[in-house]
Design a protein that fits this description.
The protein is an alpha+beta fold. About 25% of the residues lie in helices and about 30% in strands. The strands form 6 sheets. A 9-stranded mixed β-sheet has the order 2-5-10-3-1-22-20-15-16, with helices on one face. Strands 4, 6, 7, 8, 9 and 21 form a 6-stranded antiparallel β-sheet that branches. A 3-stranded antiparallel β-sheet has the order 11-12-19, with no helix packed on it. A hairpin with a 2-residue loop joins strand 23 and strand 24.
Length: about 500
């Protein structure tokens, strides 16, 4: 056997030539990585030391298989797939249910509106918080009976792999099955919003960011609104749309005609809550699905919080006529001694851990909780929080990205439950004297009209979805006081 065929006689040039035959030199970085890996392997495994002035170690092999080992190591370094783009998303699906577990419509109301620079393709569909009744506003929004779910502030973060060239160009498409996507930033192409007068479960709204630049140097538009600055407190790659609008994330919101996958009702004596699955049969192919993290939480106006973590549940498909067995029961009330400010910190901590378990980075989990601090934790009410199953999210909100990526989605289900306190407020409105004018009126001061009056506390204390609760109460228990209050303040629904 000649020198060229005897591994025991190979020198540096022989090794180099043979490696050149087997290892693709697609990039200098790849080739250098292969050299480094071989040197490290040969030195630490066989105590070989490269000759001075020679990059590759002299091979004084005693075993023919050593060549194969070295080649395999180099090939692993060179041919290992590049790390993919990492995409993380969080958001909230919000619903409202009464004591019987019936889904209430008309929840097209924001409690934390986004800055004016966001694109709104259905202006007037979602109303903003205001002390003035619609009668005092021009172009007011009305309660929309078809809106039974709010898709609130999903944001997409992009994390480029180490050493990746930037900016990276990609296209991102998201669809909302059973809803419209109405608010977004930066600019995107939209489809699906045919008429704002009728929203059905057959609707599908889409957003597409074509040729999105990921990894640009950008700060985003100026704003001081917490609902926008809180999501910025994340280390992520900035993005830029084709029109030059840029931000640290992709943002969108929507409205849907969907039912929450969980139904919560009160027992006849109102002492217990029963939770059932109400996943539609259209999602049968996505089963089994489970909800691993749930919390029932009660918040007082003065800041006290009480909550309890609930056991994981398995979701089942349900037809319209079928009643599912209860997944669990839990007391409907908390004892006075269970409320404390410290509980808010504990609840946030548990939710933060659950968000990270879904794949979010710590700063991303904090961004969600900080964005919704007021709405989640400082608004009075009884609500069920839970982490939506990924299969449910992917079916109702399919996401497509044009480049290889690793996607983690952490969506919070937020189910607002009608409370006895809210029923008592509605009864006060119904039993009040029949009003004869709106809660505001205009007075002339010189030549200027000045608005006088304020929203009645009994109505304001109903909370964010006060208009939906009022209209539902009137529909089920009509009386002259409610009729006049609704008519004089123009609180009728969109088709009312």
């Amino acid at each position: 056997m000649g020198r060229g065929h005897n591994p025991a006689q190979w020198g540096p040039s022989d090794v180099h030539n043979r490696l050149s035959m087997h290892i693709p030199r697609s990039s200098s970085a790849c080739w250098e990585a292969a050299q480094g890996s071989l040197t490290y392997f040969l030195h630490h495994s066989y105590k070989w030391v490269p000759e001075v002035g020679v990059h590759w170690p002299i091979m004084k092999a005693q075993h023919f298989h050593l060549y194969g080992i070295a080649i395999s190591l180099a090939m692993m370094v060179c041919c290992a797939p590049a790390e993919p783009l990492v995409v993380h998303e969080w958001g909230t699906f919000t619903s409202l249910q009464d004591e019987a577990g019936r889904t209430l419509g008309g929840i097209n109301t924001d409690d934390e509106p986004v800055p004016a620079f966001c694109h709104d393709v259905a202006w007037g569909l979602v109303s903003r918080p205001n002390e003035l009744p619609p009668i005092a506003e021009k172009g007011f929004s009305r309660c929309h009976p078809d809106v039974t779910m709010r898709l609130e502030t999903p944001v997409l973060y992009f994390h480029l792999p180490p050493g990746a060239a930037s900016p990276l160009t990609a296209s991102v498409n998201v669809a909302f099955r059973g809803g419209w996507l109405t608010l977004f930033y930066p600019a995107a192409e939209t489809t699906g919003l045919s008429s704002p007068d009728a929203l059905t479960e057959d609707a599908t709204g889409t957003l597409t960011w074509n040729n999105l630049q990921i990894g640009v140097k950008a700060n985003g538009p100026e704003t001081s609104e917490r609902v926008w600055t809180a999501p910025r407190a994340v280390q992520a790659a900035s993005v830029s749309a084709t029109n030059g609008e840029n931000e640290q994330f992709l943002f969108y919101r929507g409205v849907g005609h969907l039912a929450c996958p969980l139904q919560v009702s009160r027992t006849a004596d109102s002492t217990m809550l029963e939770c059932r699955s109400q996943v539609g049969t259209a999602l049968s192919s996505c089963l089994p699905m489970s909800v691993q993290h749930l919390w029932l939480a009660s918040f007082r106006a003065e800041g006290g919080c009480a909550f309890r973590a609930l056991p994981p549940v398995a979701l089942q498909a349900k037809s319209d006529m079928e009643k599912q067995p209860a997944l669990f029961t839990t007391p409907a009330r908390f004892e006075p001694g269970e409320y404390s400010a410290a509980n808010l910190t504990r609840l946030r901590s548990e939710m933060r851990a659950a968000l990270q378990a879904e794949g979010l980075f710590p700063d991303e989990a904090d961004a969600l909780l900080n964005t919704w601090e007021v709405s989640y934790f400082k608004s009075a009410g009884l609500r069920l929080f839970f982490m939506l199953p990924k299969a449910w999210t992917d079916w109702h909100l399919p996401l497509d990205i044009s480049v290889p990526c690793e996607v983690k989605r952490a969506m919070v289900g937020r189910l607002e439950l009608v409370t006895p306190e809210q029923r008592a407020l509605l009864q006060k409105l119904a039993q009040a004297p029949v009003p004869i004018r709106s809660w505001v009126h205009f007075e002339m001061t010189g030549k200027q009209a000045v608005v006088r009056g304020a929203m009645p506390a009994v109505y304001r204390d109903l909370g964010r979805f006060r208009n939906a609760l009022l209209l539902d109460e009137y529909q089920n228990r009509p009386n002259p006081s409610l009729e006049a209050f609704i008519r004089l303040n123009r609180l009728q629904g969109r088709r009312g």
